[in-house]
Structures are given as structure tokens and as C-alpha cells.
Amino acid sequence: MSWASRQSWLTSLLQPTPSAILISIFVVLSIPLFLHFVIYRSASSTTLPSVLLVGPSGSGKTSLLTLFERGRPAETRTSQAPFTVEISLPVTTSTASSKYRSVNDPSLQVHKRFLLADTPGHGKLRHHAFDSVIKPQNLKGIIFMVDAADLSGASSISDNGAEGRRQTAEYLHDILLLLQNRLTGSKTSKAPRNLPLLIAANKLDLFTALPAPLVKTALEVEISKVRTSRNAGLLDSGIGMNALDIGEEKEWLGEGGDGAFLFQQMEEVGVSVDVLGGNVLGVDGPNVEAWWAWIGGLL
To answer: Which residue of 23, 161, 185, 297 pairs with 155 in a disulfide if CB–CB is 3.0 to 4.6 A?
Structure first.
């Protein structure tokens, strides 16, 4: 029996009969369900995105991690080793990927989970943070935590304030330089994915703490001093000018020349830097909503 005959099943499907209409409706409704529950679910990543938490000792990194994990800060000690926990965003914080997702979507909560990796801030243990930047594992962003009260210079009478600013700037300089070298040192034509960095200005509940805009300015000034002093150190060490020119791109942070360093220069190498204030502890409780929102924008 030819397919073109009136008794052919293919011919009957192409005719406006009740059975053909029902079959068409079933197919139209089944395809989206199949794509969502079979293909979309199976293709979704099983590895949670991660956020790296770095910063000098005493800035409040571990306190922030316990606050995010347990909903309240806990007594902490100086970290001696990296520590990673699984975190879920608060109900009130939305993710970038959930902008067009229904609130009834069962996978909505899955997209609000991430890994937060805390790293030691002591100078001899910072290689853990550097390794995580060089060899990222599904890394979505970096939080560099600073003590805004320590940057204010309120303790500069004993030079503790100036020393704290210098050490913080040196650490941040090294992190940014590693991120810059991801692009300049890439051996492939494909540029690395943009990696945002948040400078979390902690302890804004203290009277002596600098507000976030002044934290940004203070760190830019200190980083300018760091890169100038390091460049002078290379020249004083007797390195030839040819060798210095070859390594200049890898050792000079930001734009070349003698101008001041600005965080906006990092956008040229795929690193957006934000400075947001808050506090983990305080008489009135923690204030970390801005940091939550920043993380939500990564997921």
C-alpha cells in the first residue's frame, strides 16, 4: 500500500482528523518537557562553582566563612590550612542565572549553592591562595578581605597602621599580578574567562574604619608605592635593561609608565574590581548584604 493512498497511516496523520490533532498536541507538549527534564538536567554541571576567600591575617576571613555557613559568626583562630565549605545563598538573594527562572523551578535552589574556600593570610602560607588563582577549579570570583580600621592609619603612631597598609597592599598586588598574567601569559588564542574580584572592607562598624571609597583610594596609593619600589629593586639588583624589558610586562601591574595605579586598569586584563563595605561582627549584628549580592551576581 502506497503512502499516498487514502488508507495510508501517514496520509491520515496529515489530515485534520481528531486523532491527528490529538497526536500533534501531545508531540508539541512533550518536546519542551523532554528537553527540560532529560537533556537540560543531564547536561547541568555537577561541580559547584567556587569563590576564593583571601586576605591578610586578622581581616575576618574565617569569621565571614562561619557566618555564611551557620548564619552567625563564631569564635575563630588563625587559619593554618585552606578550608572549603558548601554555602547556600539566603532566600532574599537572587542569582544572575535565576533572572528568568521560575520560583517554582525545582532546580532553583541548586543554582544558589557554591563552595567558599578560605585560605590562610599569614605571609608564609599565602602560597595556598596563589595556587588557587593559578590553577582555578570552577572559580567564579575572588573576595579579598581587608580590615578597614587597620587601613585608616589610626594606629600609625607606632607605625602599625603604615605597616598594615603596606602588607595588605603587597598581598593584593601579588593577587592582581597573578590575575593579570593569566591573560598576558596565555599560550592559547582564547582569552581566559573574566574573573571578578571583590575587596570586602570589613569592620565598618568601628569608628576608626575607613568607608569603602576611601579604602579603594588608600589601596590604590599603596599599590602604586609597591610596584614602584619593586621596580626600583630590580634596577638596583643589577639586572640588565634588556632582561628588565623582557620581564616588565609580567612584573608591572596595570598600565605602563610612571602614572598612579588604578583598579579600573585591571579591566583591560579581564579583572573587574569592586570595593564594598560591611562588617561580620558588631553591636547591631553583621552587615554583609552587599557581599551576598555580589556573590549572587557570579552564580
So the answer is: 161
Tell me the C-alpha to C-alpha distance, in Å, between residue 283 and each of 203, 286, 287, 289, 291. 11, 8, 11, 17, 19
In contact, 281 and 73? CB cutoff 8 Å: yes
The average confidence (pLDDT) of the chain is: 79
Q: What percentage of the chain has pLDDT greater than the value 70?
A: 70
Instruction: Choose between 198 and 159: higher pLDDT.
Output: 198
What is the enclosing helix (H) or strand (E) of 201? Answer: strand 197-202
Position 126, amino acid: R
More confident residue, 236 or 61: 61
**Taking a C-beta distance cutoff of 8 angstroms, is the pair 195, 142 a contact?**
yes
Residues 6+ apart with CB under 8 A from 244: 234, 235
Distance of CA 106 to the CA centre of its chain: 26
Reported confidence tier of residue 159, pLDDT bands at 50, 70, 90: low
Joined together, the cell numbers standing for residue 186 give 596565555
Q: Which three cell numbers stand for residue 52?
A: 576564593
42 or 58, which is more confident: 58
CB contact at 8 A, 76 and 58? no
**Is the CB of residue 64 less than 8 Å from the CB of residue 53?**
yes
Tell me the CA distances in angstroms from 86 to 63, 89, 116, 158, one per residue in order. Answer: 15, 10, 6, 41
Residue 76, judged by CB atoms within 10 A of its CB (0-12, 13-18, 19+), counts as middle
